[in-house]
Amino acid sequence: MSADLAAIFAPLVRHHIATPATPLPARTAGITWIWTADGIAKRGVNDHLEALIPVSRTRPVPGLASLPPYVRWPDYGQARLPGELLQVAFTAALAATAPLGGLVVPTEIQAFVVWNGVAPALRIPPQHADQMRVAYEQPHDMPVMLDLHSHHALPACFSATDRRDDRSAGLSVSAVIGNLFIQPEILVRLNVYGDHGIVPARLVFDDLGPFIDRAVTRGYVMEDADAHPDG
Questions:
Q1: How does pLDDT run across 57-111, given as a tens digit for each residue?
Q2: Considering the entire predicted model, what is its pTM?
Q3: Domain with CATH 3.40.140 in the chain
Q4: At residue 1, does pLDDT exceed 50?
Q5: Is 112 exposed, middle or buried (0-12, 13-18, 19+ CB in 10 A)?
Q6: If you ran DSSP here, which 8-state letter would residue 66 be given?
Q7: Which segments of the chain are extended strands (E)?
């Protein structure tokens, strides 16, 4: 990075030591690297979203505060998204099909939870999908609270394409649903400007509806999604 660019971006990157008296600094747009009792955490803040994930582990540091991962939407008056949106997404994912060689096969779908000015709502944008991928239009008229896509009969996991898309998205929350026809499952992660953190789905949704949390069943909680070969 050039000296000019470094000067431009410097005000957007801060550092903080998480003490019991002041575990978090004031909410300010950009990135804050936080030294906690358990290692380094990364917090991202923009106009519509605030999220924190652990990015490295160390031996416990006496006198510092532990910080679990979290996500907050300043526009939304509740701590978590309504679980009934997952039921709507599940119904849409089950119904998603396309013709293939004279057959009708299940396809992926892409959906978004957006803030409509009153409450979170599920939006399924115009898209073209097959069994392995989906091309879609990104919503631009409402703040995106979470993006979600389906894997129909395949497991809920984040692919290399997902990692690339989420890295370029900056600060966001992602969910993938899969294994829809046997035991529906969900996997959720927070994306903080290039780093990813798998989190319990109940951290984001107040109810999981028909889904079990793959993070819990596979032991992925608070681990970087890049570490998993099936992601």
A1: 989 999 999 999 999 999 998 889 999 999 999 999 998 876 566 666 678 889 9
A2: 0.85
A3: 84-227
A4: no
A5: buried
A6: P
A7: 13-17, 30-36, 39-45, 50-57, 70-72, 97-100, 103-106, 110-115, 120-123, 127-129, 134-136, 144-150, 171-178, 185-192, 195-199, 212-213
- Burial of 45 (C-beta count, 10 Å sphere; 0-12/13-18/19+): buried
The token pair that represents 73 in the structure block: 């939407």
Q: Quick one: CATH architecture of 84-227? A: 3-Layer(aba) Sandwich (3.40)
Distance CA 80, CA 83 (A): 9
- Tokens 């944008």 map to which residue? 125
State the pLDDT at residue 153: 84
Q: Looking up tokens 């801060």, which residue turns up?
A: 14
- Give the pLDDT confidence score for residue 101 in this predicted structure: 66
